[in-house]
């Protein structure tokens, strides 16, 4: 009887594991569909169009839950995405990895800020067409502004 209970419990667990994956479908450009599957600390990206199809997996070394945020992060009219999480310490900061759609390659490429090592507490300023984030210099927080008017992403 215990074996039957254990077997049923394991089968139930196996059926719930795929439900833990977060799937997001976007259309970054006309005629292009992208599917983002976030499962644990892995992100599977599949991009399909009439002319191109590609997929890849990115492993985030994350202990906290990952989240997907959609926006036009480089203000080019294409829908982009970011993966973010709370910091592993006290949960004070949000860490972002930003991926922008590139029409010339048909894929998403990771964007780096103009200062600091990454996007911390990212804010999208659509009016100024800039991303603002926090970085530290000599243990003091500073504001980083990443602009796109002169940059090629």
Short summary:
This is Secreted protein. With 153 residues, the chain is mostly beta strands. Helices cover 10% and strands 48% of the residues.
Strand and helix layout:
Elements: H1 2-16, E1 22-26, E2 33-39, E3 42-48, E4 53-59, E5 67-71, E6 80-86, E7 94-102, E8 107-111, E9 119-120, E10 123-125, E11 130-137, E12 140-147
Antiparallel strand pairs: 1-2, 2-3, 3-4, 5-6, 6-7, 7-8, 7-9, 10-11, 11-12
Organism: Pseudomonas shahriarae
Keywords: Signal
Signal peptide: 1-21
Order of helices and strands: HEEEEEEEEEEEE
The CATH architecture: Beta Barrel
Structural class: mainly beta
Report the C-alpha radius of gyration, rounded: 19 Å
Based on DSSP secondary structure assignment, what is the total number of beta strands? 12
What average pLDDT do the residues reach? 85
Beta-strand proportion: over 45%
Distance between the termini: 61 Å
CATH fold label = Lipocalin
| Biggest sheet statistics | 5 strands, antiparallel
How many DSSP H or I helices?
1
Low-confidence stretches: 3-18
- Helix percent reads under 10%
């Amino acid at each position: 009887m215990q074996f039957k209970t254990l077997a049923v419990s394991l089968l139930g667990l196996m059926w719930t594991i795929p439900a833990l994956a977060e799937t997001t479908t976007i259309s970054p450009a006309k005629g292009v569909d992208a599917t983002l599957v976030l499962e644990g600390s892995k992100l599977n990206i599949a991009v399909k169009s009439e002319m191109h199809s590609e997929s890849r997996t990115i492993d985030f070394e994350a202990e906290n839950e990952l989240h997907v945020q959609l926006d036009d992060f480089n203000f080019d009219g294409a829908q982009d995405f970011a993966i973010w999480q709370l910091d592993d310490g006290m949960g004070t900061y949000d860490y972002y990895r930003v991926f922008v759609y590139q029409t010339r390659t048909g894929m998403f490429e990771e964007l780096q800020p103009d200062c600091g090592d990454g996007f911390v507490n990212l804010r999208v300023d659509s009016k100024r067409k800039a991303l603002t984030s926090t970085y530290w210099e000599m243990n003091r927080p500073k504001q980083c502004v990443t602009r796109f008017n002169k940059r090629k992403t």
